[in-house]
User: Which sequence fits this backbone?
């Protein structure tokens, strides 16, 4: 397994996140509202003061974050981090080798951007911290009307959300094959290894235990990358698995 972020147990992905401290269009310091279509995700709060906005077809929630708290959510849940004390740090635990950060995400841009594939591709592309903040601002501007609709007229809000889901499907469909490859090379591969181990135990074949190994990863000395919600340091070994869920030829 030489695929970035697929070397962790159970095929999960881990990233350390320092949430953005710059205020957005509504004055809130924090990350980009977005959702995933394939991957579930968990936030474990390491330190700091914050909050999390959650929006799905069942409605809108605003919950406080404190050190030691874990929040997890499934595909389709729009989530937006607030960095209230400008000191929020989170450990992100993701399904499918970190695919949630590397291709399986849709930002809540305006309808004008969401309906134009070229405009969407341009809006998500960043090469600097300043670019990431601008991308965050565009996502917030698209999120605010959706949140207001969900609060004022839930059925209208759900219809807006359904449109976002349809746009997400159109945008991500070309990546479906690479997503499937990641699942087969990561989580499904790891599950098969565990199933094989059960069979080996049952049959008395213990040679596989002699192949045990260990590894360690410490990304905190690396330069952070501008992520969706803040400065990101993935727990990863190499660059074989590229951004956007693409496989290296």
Assistant:
């Amino acid at each position: 397994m030489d695929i970035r972020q697929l070397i962790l147990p159970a095929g999960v992905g881990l990233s350390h996140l320092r949430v953005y401290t710059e205020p957005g269009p509504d004055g809130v310091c924090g990350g980009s509202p977005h959702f995933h279509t394939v991957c579930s995700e968990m936030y474990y709060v390491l330190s700091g003061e914050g909050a999390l906005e959650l929006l799905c077809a069942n409605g809108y929630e605003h919950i406080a974050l404190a050190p030691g708290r874990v929040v997890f959510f499934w595909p389709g849940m729009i989530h937006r981090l607030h960095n209230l004390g400008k000191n929020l740090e989170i450990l992100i635990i993701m399904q499918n080798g970190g695919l949630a950060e590397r291709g399986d995400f849709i930002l809540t841009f305006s309808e004008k951007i969401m309906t134009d594939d070229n405009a969407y591709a341009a809006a998500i592309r960043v090469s600097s911290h300043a670019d990431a903040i601008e991308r965050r601002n565009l996502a917030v501007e698209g999120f605010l009307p959706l949140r207001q609709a969900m609060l004022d007229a839930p059925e209208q809000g759900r219809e807006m959300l359904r449109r976002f889901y349809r746009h997400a499907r159109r945008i991500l469909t070309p990546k479906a094959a690479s997503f499937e490859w990641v699942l087969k090379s990561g989580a499904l591969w790891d599950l098969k290894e565990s199933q094989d181990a059960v069979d080996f135990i049952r049959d008395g074949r213990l040679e596989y235990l002699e192949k045990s190994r260990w590894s360690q990863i410490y990304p905190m000395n690396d330069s952070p990358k501008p992520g969706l919600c803040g400065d990101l340091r993935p727990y990863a070994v190499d660059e074989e698995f590229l951004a956007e869920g693409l496989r290296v030829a």
